[in-house]
Every structure is written in structure tokens, then in C-alpha cells.
Design goal:
single chain, 499 residues, alpha/beta, FAD/NAD(P)-binding domain, 3 domains, 7-stranded mixed sheet, 5-stranded parallel sheet, 16 helices, 19 strands, globular, binds flavin-adenine dinucleotide
């Protein structure tokens, strides 16, 4: 008997993981990707001898990638290699303070005490608490479907739910951090973790203080061939599992019949599939691919996460005072986030994130140069005058970097490319160019993400950063795991209806 056919819409990181998992379950899998390249947000740009990872730059929970190799009996290190960073990030403030966040928590805490005067023991206490909270709620919120009663009917889940008020469901991240630390620079440093899922530290619940655990206790990692090698190694793995890729092939419709998803319309032609997993943003899945169906408006209209403005600058000088990850903080963080989330614009003093992969992978820049991925958090696309905002922000970023690095940054740029909320939206079909789907700016956000299956259409499932459990590489990988576990549970119960 032939293997049942499964389709994955989109070759983002979630779609690649779903394809590998479905192939492992015995499906004949085809991935349809609108772009001529796979990876979605996890792609790369090359120009004049410089290489840039286009989207994600921080790699956490690498075991979620390893798990895909192990699932099919392969040794991950034979195909995909990474190292744990000794130094996580270098932080710079306008008052001249510089601080290195070492991976070793004790060394980091001592550095904080030396540079900021905050007792090292407080920092260690904060990181211990972050670990405890992660261990209490991580399993419930990240590793399982939140939309199945069985998720909640066990002792671990009940214990986590009872603890939620204590863990900070009712206070904000900023409120909790300002109560905990004396030094405002340290409050700012830990508030920044709200941006890891595109949220506002002045609104997002303190529960998100579980995020520093990932970076500071488990670790930050760097794939030796760059972030884009996550995509290339997973595509190669999928191909070894027999997955077919149809790149440059947008899906036009999900075809339905009597409450079931039964196939796809591609290039005007119907193609039958037993199972369909959409890795396309959930808003565009409904609006573009299922325009005639009833839409879950409450979920689709949730406020979206922030977006980003990225200047990819090929620089012809090297800066020993910089590392792989560098943050240049704004003077007034609250004002910066009010600009993003309340006024939907960009402050004149944005925090600048500078990622330089040539520090670890020298061939990413010509000799004597560096590849600067220079990113500012900005609002999602609501039709702002982006050309005007980009021109202003470029000036502010260059002025800030020139000031804090004692150079004329503009004169060092040899090549330049740009990504903004409009191009993120156009290239990945992400609603409003949001990086992480819905924002987590309210305490019910986790429950207002779309499930990993359709409650209207049998055989239709969802994965990727716009659905449960959320955005970012590790969570998008987990979404694929949850979606395909649901496929395994549900599909052998219902007969296939041919088109
Ligand atoms: P996406 O990458 O959103 O891809 C979806 C794919 O579906 C696209 O390729 C699209 O073309 C395709 N598609 C859509 N509609 C159709 C259709 N009709 N037919 C066929 N194909 C279709 N995460 C981190 O973990 N660490 C970071 O440091 C980090 N930084 C980031 C910085 C930037 C600038 C960006 C943009 C994102 C960042 N993220 C980061 C977030 C992370 O990149 C995403 O959460 C993750 O890659 C989303 O993957 P996904 O599976 O949702 O797919």
C-alpha cells in the first residue's frame, strides 16, 4: 500500500521540523514554499564578500534541533555542529558602563557586582528563581497542546496552575525586576528579555522572567556554520527522509469538503492530501487560503508582537571591544517601549542590537572587516511612513554607535542591505511583519494563540511561530512536535476521503 500523502505549507523552521516528523511517521511528505529558498525568517544574505544571517541570531535550546536527527536515528554532530558560548552578550550604556554577560552564572554575577554594584548573590538568586519557574510552568505552557483537557489533568499541571499567581501572572516584568534589583541598568538588562518574544516589559507578565533561564542557565549557542545552517541541515535531513520540496510554489487554497481539509490548490490545480500542516502565519492561512471559512476572529485579531528594522552593514574595520552579541541601551527604556507599543513609531534613542558572526566565523567578512547585523525593535506594520522612519532611525543608530565606539560608523560601511516590517511581511507572509506572532502583553496571551489543529476542519494542523506555544526557533520547533503528535493521535482514527 502507498504511504498516505501529507502536505506542509511553508518551509520555515516549524514547517521543516513538521515535514521530518511526518516523514518519520510514514507519510509521503511534500513541502510547498512560496519563496525560491527554504527557511522563511531563518535565511541568509550575501553581498560583496560579507555573509549575514538574515533573521534569528540568538540560538537557545539547541537540543530541539538535535532531537530531529535523533528521531530518525542520526547523530546530530555528524550533520549540524554548534558551540556553547562562554560569553553571552556585551552590554553598553550611554554613561560609559560596559558589562560582559558571561555564561558562567557566578562569573556573570561577579561582573555585575563589579560594574553595577548590585550584590552578586542577588543576581544568582534571580537566575535560580528563573530556573525554578521554568521548571514549574515550562512543561505545561511549552511542551504540550494547551487545547487538550488531558494537558491539565495531571498533578504537574495542577501544581503549575496553583503557582501561577505567585510566579508573577498579575505583575509586570518591569514591576518584578524593579522590585528585585537596585540598579536601574540591571533592571533594564533583564527587562530586555521581553523582546525575546516581541513584547513590552512594562506590560508583559512577570512570568516571562523564565526566559533568562534559557540563556543564562542552559546557555546561548552558535552554530559553527552560522544560524542559516540550521535551515540547510534540516532541509538536508528532510530530503534524506524522502521529503519533496516544491520551492517557489505558493499554495493558493486549502480545499475542503464537509468539514474536512482534503487537499491544496497549487498553480490552479487541485492536489489531494490526507494531512495538511500549515506553517504559514495563521492569519494569512485563514485570510488567503481559507477565505470562505468562518475565521476565529478573537484569536486572529490579538495584538501582534513587535517587528524589527535591520541594517546589514559590511564594515571594513575590526572592533576588539565588540563580541558576537552586543547591546547598546537607550537612555529611557520606558519611553522607547511607549514609542513602539503605544505610539506605533520608533524612538529617537532606540536600543541597538549588534550581531557580528565574523567574530566566530571569520569567513563571514573579508580580512580586516566585520559583518554588522544592526537591529532595532520597531512596531509591527500598521501603515506607518516607513521610508521616513528608516531614514531617521539610520541616522540615530549611526550616531549612537559612533558615540559609543568612538568612530565614524557611517564612513566604514562598504555594503548595505535592509529588512523592515514591510519586507518581513512580504517575504514570509507574517501578519504585520511581526517577528513572533501575537505579543505576550497580557496575562491571557498563552491561551489566545491558535491551537496546533483546526477545530473546524479535520486533517488540518498548524505549526510555526504564530501558533501555540509561540515564536522563536525553539518554540516553533516545539509547535511542530505538538502538531505532529496530534496527527499521530488523530489520523489513524478517521478514513481518507479522496478528492
Ligand atoms: P516562518 O519563518 O515564518 O516561515 C513561514 C514560511 O511559510 C515562509 O517561508 C513563507 O514564505 C511560507 N509561506 C507562507 N504562506 C505560504 C503559502 N501560501 N504557500 C507556500 N508557502 C507559504 N528567533 C530566535 O529564536 N532567536 C532570535 O534571535 C530571533 N531573532 C529574529 C530576528 C528577526 C529579524 C526575525 C525576522 C525573527 C527572529 N526570530 C528569532 C524569530 C524566528 O525567526 C521565528 O520565530 C521563526 O523562524 C519562525 O518560524 P516559522 O516556522 O513560524 O516560519
Amino acid at each position: 500500500m502507498k504511504n498516505p500523502r501529507a502536505a506542509v505549507i511553508g518551509a520555515g523552521i516549524g514547517g521543516l521540523a513538521a515535514a521530518i516528523r511526518l516523514a518519520h511517521q510514514g507519510y509521503a511528505v511534500t513541502v510547498f514554499e512560496a519563496n525560491p529558498y527554504p527557511g522563511g525568517k531563518l535565511s541568509e544574505i550575501t553581498s560583496d564578500g560579507y555573509r549575514f544571517d538574515a533573521g534569528p541570531s540568538l540560538f537557545t535550546l539547541p537540543d530541539q534541533v538535535d532531537a530531529l536527527f535523533r528521531l530518525v536515528g542520526e547523530e546530530p554532530r555528524d550533520h549540524f555542529d554548534y558551540e556553547r558560548l562562554d560569553e553571552i552578550c556585551r552590554y553598553f550604556w550611554e554613561d560609559g558602563t560596559c558589562l560582559t554577560a558571561w555564561a558562567d552564572p557566578v562569573r556573570f554575577a561577579q561582573e555585575v557586582e563589579a560594574q553595577l554594584g548590585e550584590p552578586a548573590e542577588r543576581v544568582l538568586q534571580f537566575l535560580r528563581r528563573s530556573r525554578t519557574y521554568f521548571e514549574l510552568v515550562g512543561e505545561l505552557f511549552l511542551f504540550r497542546s494547551l487545547h487538550k483537557p488531558s494537558t491539565f489533568l495531571n498533578r504537574t499541571a495542577l501544581r503549575a496552575i496553583r503557582q501561577l499567581p505567585k510566579l508573577g501572572l498579575f505583575s509586570t516584568m518591569h514591576g518584578a525586576n524593579a522590585d528585585f534589583f537596585l540598579d536601574p541598568r540591571l533592571v533594564q538588562l533583564f527587562n530586555r528579555f521581553a523582546t525575546y518574544n516581541g513584547s513590552d516589559p512594562y506590560q508583559t507578565p512577570a512570568l516571562l522572567n523564565i526566559i533568562p533561564h534559557l540563556e543564562h542557565n542552559i546557555g546561548a549557542f552558535f552554530p559553527r556554520q552560522g544560524m542559516h545552517s540550521i535551515t540547510t541541515s534540516l532541509v538536508a535531513l528532510a530530503r534524506r527522509q524522502g521529503v519533496t520540496f516544491r520551492l517557489g510554489t505558493p499554495v493558493e487554497r486549502i480545499l475542503t469538503h464537509r468539514g474536512k481539509a482534503i487537499g491544496l490548490q497549487v498553480a490552479g490545480k487541485p492536489l489531494p492530501f490526507r494531512v495538511i500542516v500549515s506553517n504559514a502565519d495563521v492569519v494569512s492561512t485563514y485570510r488567503r487560503l481559507l477565505p470562505e471559512r468562518r475565521h476565529p476572529h478573537r484569536i486572529l485579531r490579538q495584538p501582534k508582537s513587535s517587528s524589527a528594522l535591520i541594517f546589514y552593514w559590511g564594515i571594513d574595520r575590526q572592533f576588539p571591544q565588540l563580541g558576537l552579541h552586543n547591546i547598546f541601551f537607550s537612555r529611557d527604556y520606558r519611553r522607547e517601549f511607549a514609542h513602539i507599543f503605544r505610539h506605533q513609531t520608533v524612538s529617537d534613542d532606540p536600543t541597538v542590537y549588534l550581531n557580528i558572526t565574523s567574530k566566530y566565523k571569520p569567513d563571514d567578512a573579508p580580512p580586516g572587516g566585520e559583518n554588522w547585523f544592526t537591529m532595532v525593535n520597531v512596531p509591527n506594520n500598521a501603515g506607518q511612513d516607513w521610508d521616513g522612519l528608516i531614514a531617521q532611525t539610520r541616522q540615530h543608530v549611526l550616531a549612537k554607535l559612533s558615540r559609543l565606539l568612538s568612530c565614524d560608523a557611517a564612513s566604514l560601511i562598504r555594503t548595505e542591505a535592509l529588512l523592515d516590517p514591510r519586507s518581513i511581511e512580504a517575504r514570509t507572509a507574517s501578519a504585520q511583519g511581526a517577528l513572533y506572532g501575537n505579543s505576550s502583553n497580557n496575562r491571557y496571551a498563552a491561551f489566545l494563540r491558535h491551537a496546533n489543529y483546526s477545530s473546524q476542519l479535520a486533517h488540518l494542523y498548524f505549526c510555526g511561530g504564530s501558533v501555540h506555544p509561540g515564536g522563536g526557533i525553539p518554540l516553533s520547533l516545539l509547535s511542530a512536535r505538538i502538531a505532529t503528535e496530534l496527527v499521530a493521535e488523530r489520523e489513524n482514527r478517521s478514513p481518507f476521503l479522496p478528492l
